[in-house]
Recover the amino acids of this structure.
């Protein structure tokens, strides 16, 4: 959300603009922006106006209208609440149920086949992995953190297999986060970049050290 100053000196807010290909990132940014304005409750309202004031509805609708192109405004102008407008936009961008399921299947197949490229670093792999996972979750599908962690460990190049095996053997994958796994892989990546070869005993934590970290 950018802040600009008008000719009169007052501050105005510039929200991210929805396009044909950015619904996932747009919806995530818009949630933060609407929450920052204190009117996200209007989006999650069950329609009971005793819980959400009319002014709050209008503010939320104003924010939505500022962030969508004119052709979409014309499609949602009949919607009476920000919740209805938000759902209509999601339906237009994500598609009907059948289309959504097809998209999820395509994304899951892409996730399963994801492997690290020879020219990539661990950060690059993680960005691609998390991008697919985020798109799946935005479509309403559950994607457990432990599944993503295991996929990350399976997708690395051969030079990372030793540390990946150690993480799988001594780490608690059901509780480990993607960020924690990424950190351990990056630490290994930094070591193998060193000017001299490091022995396996220096490169990897011992079983006892792993157990202490997980305690």
């Amino acid at each position: 959300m950018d802040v600009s100053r008008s000719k009169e000196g007052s501050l105005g807010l510039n929200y991210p603009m929805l396009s044909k290909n950015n619904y996932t990132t747009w919806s995530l940014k818009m949630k933060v922006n609407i929450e920052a304005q204190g009117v996200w409750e209007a989006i999650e309202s069950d329609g009971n106006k005793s819980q959400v004031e009319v002014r709050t509805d209008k503010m939320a609708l104003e924010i939505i209208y500022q962030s969508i192109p004119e052709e979409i405004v014309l499609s949602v102008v009949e919607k009476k609440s920000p919740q209805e407008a938000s759902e209509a936009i999601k339906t237009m961008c994500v598609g009907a149920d059948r289309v959504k399921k097809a998209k999820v299947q395509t994304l899951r197949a892409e996730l399963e086949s994801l492997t690290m490229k020879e020219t990539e670093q661990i950060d690059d792999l993680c960005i691609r992995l998390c991008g697919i996972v985020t798109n799946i979750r935005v479509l309403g599908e559950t994607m457990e953190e432990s599944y993503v962690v295991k996929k990350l460990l399976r997708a690395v190049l051969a030079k990372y297999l030793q540390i990946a095996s150690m993480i799988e053997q001594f780490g608690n994958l059901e509780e480990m986060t993607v960020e924690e796994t990424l950190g351990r892989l990056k630490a290994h990546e930094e070591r193998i970049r060193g000017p001299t070869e490091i022995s396996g005993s220096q490169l990897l934590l011992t079983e006892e050290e792993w157990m202490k970290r997980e305690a």
Summary: The chain has twelve helices and two strands.
